[in-house]
Amino acid sequence: MLAFLHISMEHGAVAGPAAQDVVIFTLDFIQERIDFDPTSSIRAAKDDGSVLMAEYSLEINRFLKRYWGNGILELWDGKDGKCLGYSDAFIPVNIDLRGTIDNFNQRIKTCEEEIIKRRDSAKG
Question: Among 18, 52, 59, 91, which is least packed, fewest CB within 10 Å?
Answer without folding.
Answer: 91
